[in-house]
């Protein structure tokens, strides 16, 4: 089968789209199918995609992409930048076009729309005879390291906290939250993920503390191990939330972009996470402290953990591929 996956990412826009496309790529591999990733990206993505068949190519602006894609069996697009016209052109030249969506971004042409977010069924997608929808956490694509996860042990006390704001931390939240925890909880171990796209890292060299551990460019395996180890995570509201739910990590979320709000608020409503607010909320740090105090209650954390694992079972990528190759 001739299959292409088109997406975007890098230092300026983050790595979430690339990460979830890799997870679908990995699920194709389990069926002995090798797609090609075409990435509108910068050099910072190379480590993330090093074990895949990929090409870095600005498919959004180079018209040659349509010659490349013509007559493909499946073309999957995961983009916040491509316009409706691009999707329609692809839809007209390939056998099956597939679109990853988060918030009903555009009116999609014929094909399959996948939204694996917790809020997907609340979006009221238009019913059309030539569009099939794969909605909800049954179709949440997770990297293969998260397909099988042991049950998480919830400890009596919060002794280990993970701070993770994606591969880029565009809002520079990591130092603010680390400083807060250092001041209020000096004896707790803090595991701090520093991604390849971080622009501001000068502050790290000033920190000398036996209870702070920096993890650089964490692999999926390292992230899973960290999540299994910690008692609580403070995270941005992107795709990492779904990995945290899969592992069952009690989580305090901070939304760092408008497109994260629906997902974060739905997760809060369901009971998996505690929402501290938007990144520029003047009470954000105070909210985080109040939520940590609340989550010192082991029963609350146990319940959050169960809810996360109930909704995200790790089969999303494989469920997607099954639907695409059996249609």
UniProtKB/TrEMBL annotation:
The keyword Manganese does not apply. Residues 166-301 form the Glycosyl transferase family 28 C-terminal domain. The active site is at residue 17. The keyword Hydrolase applies. Keywords: Hydrolase. Substrate binds at residues 15-16, 143, 243. Pfam families: Glyco_tran_28_C. GO terms for molecular function: hexosyltransferase activity; hydrolase activity. It comes from the Bacteria. NCBIfam families: PseG. This is UDP-2,4-diacetamido-2,4, 6-trideoxy-beta-L-altropyranose hydrolase.
């Amino acid at each position: 089968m001739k299959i292409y996956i088109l997406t975007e990412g890098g230092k300026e826009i983050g790595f979430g789209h690339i990460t979830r496309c890799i997870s679908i790529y990995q699920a194709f591999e389990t069926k002995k199918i090798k797609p090609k990733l075409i990435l509108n990206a910068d050099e910072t993505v190379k480590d993330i995609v090093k074990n895949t068949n990929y090409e870095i190519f600005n498919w959004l602006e180079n018209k040659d992409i349509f010659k490349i894609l013509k007559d493909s069996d499946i073309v999957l697009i995961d983009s916040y930048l491509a316009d409706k016209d691009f999707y329609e052109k692809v839809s007209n030249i390939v056998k099956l076009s597939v679109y990853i969506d988060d918030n009903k971004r555009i009116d999609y042409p014929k094909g399959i729309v996948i939204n694996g977010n917790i809020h997907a069924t609340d979006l009221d997608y238009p019913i059309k005879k030539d569009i099939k929808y794969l909605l909800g956490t049954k179709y949440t694509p997770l990297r293969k390291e998260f397909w099988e996860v042991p049950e998480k042990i919830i400890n009596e006390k919060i002794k280990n906290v993970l701070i993770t704001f994606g591969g880029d931390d565009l809002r520079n939240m990591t130092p603010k939250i680390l400083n807060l925890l250092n001041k209020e909880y000096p004896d707790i171990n803090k595991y701090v993920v520093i991604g390849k796209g971080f622009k501001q890292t000068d502050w790290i060299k000033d920190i000398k503390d036996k209870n702070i551990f920096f993890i650089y460019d964490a692999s999926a395996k390292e992230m899973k191990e960290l999540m299994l180890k910690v008692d609580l995570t403070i995270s941005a509201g992107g795709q990492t939330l779904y990995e945290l739910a899969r592992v069952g990590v009690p989580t305090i979320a901070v939304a760092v972009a408008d497109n994260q709000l629906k997902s974060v608020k739905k997760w809060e409503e369901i009971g998996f996470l505690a929402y501290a607010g938007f990144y520029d909320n003047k009470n954000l740090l105070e909210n985080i402290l109040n939520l940590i105090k609340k989550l010192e209650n082991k029963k609350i954390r146990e319940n959050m953990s169960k809810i996360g694992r109930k909704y995200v079972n790790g089969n999303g990528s494989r469920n997607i591929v099954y639907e695409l190759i059996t249609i």
